[in-house]
Design goal:
Elements: E1 6-18, E2 29-48, E3 50-53, H1 61-66, E4 72-80, H2 90-105, H3 112-127, H4 133-140, E5 143-149, E6 152-158, E7 166-170, H5 177-187, H6 192-210, H7 215-231, H8 237-248, E8 253-256, E9 264-268, H9 275-281, E10 285-288
Parallel strand pairs: 3-4
Antiparallel strand pairs: 1-2, 2-4, 2-5, 5-6, 7-9, 7-10, 8-9
Helix pairs in contact: 2-3, 2-4, 3-4, 6-7
The structure holds (3R)-3-hydroxy-3-methyl-5-(phosphonooxy)pentanoic acid.
């Protein structure tokens, strides 16, 4: 590979099926890459390295760029079909797409481990102390069970279960991941029993998911997970109401996704056709989501 004038790369967003927050403390999480993505284009040009074009403004973007790019000479364009700050991995997709584009611009090929390590530096700008599950699954694609053991990422591929009816309800309110993670940390050890129950739920869900269990069997585990996320203090009245709305419209189970404090709810098991209108009546949006294919 050789130096290029322009380089472009994409990475998908993600949703966490179960295990958020507990994964920060070494428990496993299950996550899948979604069929929405972020595209980063890098162009060599005179002047300081800066974002020339982005669908959102974020004061942390400059620091994110400098984690990967030189201080001068590169213009950055970002395009995304992911909602920002809603638990769908917008920062993780940006991290991976940026790392991939930077490597291509310099004519370097990254191993998956190098890509993951470089992505940490970008995610840390947005999240403080990320477990790595977000950019791990955005990098890997498909569906993975992720865990951090002694600081090292451990991935296991899980089957990509298409056709089980995955829906997102976006409450429109962003959540702040760093703030939510800090809140959970401050509530320990009082919430450690709930964190342990989340980890047990992930093991149960992994077994059922891998065995091909139907949505009717998987759904209740998601709803149980939501209750535990309530117990650790990361849900909101809007997220609870969105879970109830999904269940009232025929979903087999539903839970908040990501750090909480705002963001999206994931519903499983094909909610009925009235859900989008019912969500819109609350000022939310509801849409189906697919699992992006494994990358490697
Ligand atoms: O809010 P999100 O989608 O970035 O999810 C973060 C997941 C957490 O477990 C809450 C934090 C982490 O680093 O794993």
């Amino acid at each position: 590979m050789s130096l290029r004038a322009v380089a472009e790369a994409t990475a998908p967003g993600k949703l966490i099926l179960a295990g958020e927050h507990a994964v920060v403390y070494g428990a496993p999480a299950i996550a899948f890459a979604v069929d929405r993505e972020t595209r980063v284009t890098l162009r060599r040009r005179p002047g300081p390295t800066a974002v020339d074009d982005a669908p959102f403004a974020d004061a942390r973007l400059g620091a994110a760029l400098s984690a990967v790019l030189p201080a001068g000479g590169i213009g950055v364009s970002i395009a995304s079909t992911l909602p920002v700050g809603r638990g769908m991995g917008s920062s993780a997709a940006l991290a991976i797409a940026l790392v991939r584009a930077a490597a291509t611009l310099d004519g370097r090929a990254l191993t998956p481990a190098e890509e993951h390590a470089a992505g940490f530096a970008v995610e840390a700008v947005f999240h403080g102390t990320p477990s790595g599950v977000d950019h791990g699954v955005c990098g890997a694609g498909g569906c993975v069970r992720y865990r951090r053991v002694d600081g090292a990422p451990v991935f296991a591929r899980l089957p990509v279960r298409q056709g089980i009816g995955l829906w997102v309800i976006d409450t429109g309110a962003p959540g702040d991941t760093a703030e939510m993670v800090a809140g959970v940390r401050a509530r320990r050890p009082g919430i450690d029993a709930a964190l342990a129950a989340i980890a047990r739920g992930v093991d149960h869900l992994t077994a059922l998911w891998c065995a091909g269990a139907p949505a009717a069997a998987l759904g209740p585990l998601l709803t149980d997970n939501h209750r535990l996320l309530q117990d650790i203090g990361v849900s909101t009245p809007a997220l609870d109401a969105a879970v109830s709305l999904a269940l009232a419209h025929g979903a087999a189970g539903a839970k908040l996704c990501g750090a909480g404090g705002g963001g999206v709810v994931l519903a499983l098991g094909s909610p009925n056709a009235a859900l989008p209108a019912a969500a819109a009546a609350q000022g939310w949006s509801a849409f189906p989501v697919g699992i992006a294919p494994p990358r490697r």
